[in-house]
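Working notes for the structural subgroup meeting. M.R. asked for a predicted model of this chain before we commit to crystallization trials. I am recording the input and output together here so anyone reviewing the notebook later can reproduce the run.

Input as submitted:
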Amino acid sequence: MGETIYVNRKDLTSREVLQELADGNRVIIEVTVLGKSLNMALRRQSGTYYCDTPMKLLTYETEEEMRRCLERYRLAEPAPAEDSADGVPAVED
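Returned structure, recorded in C-alpha cell form:
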C-alpha cells in the first residue's frame, strides 16, 4: 500500500481523492460531528472502494459510486465539470 494522506473535510475535490486512491494511497479525512473530531479512512483494494467510518464500513464497486459518496457526505468538494474537446466547459443537466 502507498502513503497515507491526511486531510480535512473538503480540502480536496472528489477527483483528487479518487486519484490518490487510484495511486494506491489511503486518504484519512478528519470531520467534525456534533463537536467531536472523527476520522474517515478511504482506500481502494482489489478494485473495491472502502469508506471506513466510525460507525460502519461502506463499500463501493465503482469509481462513480465512490465519487457520489464523497460528494453526498461532503467529504470532498465536487469535481469541476470536464472541459469539452473544443475548450468550452461542459454543461451538466
